[in-house]
């Protein structure tokens, strides 16, 4: 357990429920200093009242709110060593069933919200030549699934942003990790909105997936508290992973997708190579 005055400072977004709450609580249990954030701090009062905690209001859809939260964290603790971009929302619908306003909301929270926080913490991390940025995506950020097409698209976007960011900031001493959970017992599935105008043609694909998500609430295999411990272990490792799968289902799905892609790439390898200009000489 770190000494309080030397303990790394973590900023965690979306701490009112689920992963964020479990991560913040575990970090405080382990003696870290934690900036506990939520849109309304009343929802995190129990965590914010603990030693070494600072509860700060944070709405990731507002640049001024994000900048203010990071500024308050730095004024209180002097720095932010690790940021965990956990805040996110879901939406259940086939791609064709998803209205534009729902798409924009998904991307504003899940992608642009993450990017806003990254922009806010990077100046301090660059100045210190140290820091870790942890972006929670989803197994849906690596593999597409029915009924969550635009959710997956936003999470794929965070994966791509993180991969590019890693190339830019690792030479400056800053680490970037993405975390891809499968289904965990959070309120994500239960609180996600969904289409009000389902199309019958998609009932056996997106419709069936929507019903399965609702039926899974309270029965998901993943334990958020164990996920919090796994995340801290990964961030604290001498060589943290660039990507951290969480849950047996995430591991299974990711490995199967990797194998399928490799098989297809090899099968079409000659076509890929044939698209280049012929070698000279």
UniProtKB/TrEMBL annotation:
Annotated family: Belongs to the short-chain dehydrogenases/reductases (SDR) family.
Transmembrane segments: none
Signal peptide start and end residues: none
Ketoreductase domain boundaries: 8-191
Family annotation (NCBIfam families): PRK06180.1
Pfam families reported for this sequence: adh_short (PF00106)
Keywords from the UniProt entry: Oxidoreductase
Listed name of the protein: Oxidoreductase
């Amino acid at each position: 357990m770190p000494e309080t005055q030397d303990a790394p400072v973590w900023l965690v977004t979306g701490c009112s429920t689920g992963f964020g709450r479990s991560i913040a609580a575990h970090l405080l249990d382990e003696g870290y200093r934690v900036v506990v954030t939520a849109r309304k701090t009343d929802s995190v009062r129990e965590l914010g009242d603990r030693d070494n905690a600072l509860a700060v209001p944070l709405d990731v859809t507002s640049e001024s709110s994000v900048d203010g939260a990071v500024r308050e964290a730095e004024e209180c603790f002097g720095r932010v060593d690790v940021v965990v971009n956990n805040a996110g929302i879901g939406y259940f619908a086939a791609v064709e069933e998803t209205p534009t306003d729902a798409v924009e909301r998904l991307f504003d929270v899940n992608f642009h919200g993450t990017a806003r926080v990254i922009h806010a913490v990077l100046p301090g991390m660059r100045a210190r030549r140290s820091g870790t940025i942890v972006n929670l995506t989803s197994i849906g950020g690596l593999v597409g699934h029915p009924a969550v097409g635009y959710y997956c698209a936003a999470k794929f976007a965070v994966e791509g942003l993180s991969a590019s960011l890693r190339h830019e900031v690792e030479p400056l001493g800053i680490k970037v990790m993405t975390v891809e959970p499968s289904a965990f017992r959070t309120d994500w599935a239960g609180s996600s909105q969904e289409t009000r105008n389902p199309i019958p043609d998609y009932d056996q694909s997106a419709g069936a997936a929507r019903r399965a998500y609702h039926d899974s609430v309270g029965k998901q295999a993943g334990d958020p508290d164990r996920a919090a411990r796994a995340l801290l272990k990964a961030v604290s490792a001498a060589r943290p992973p660039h990507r951290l799968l969480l849950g047996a289902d995430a591991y299974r799905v990711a490995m199967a997708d990797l194998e399928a892609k490799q098989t297809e790439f090899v099968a079409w390898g000659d076509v890929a190579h044939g698209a280049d200009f012929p070698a000279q000489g």
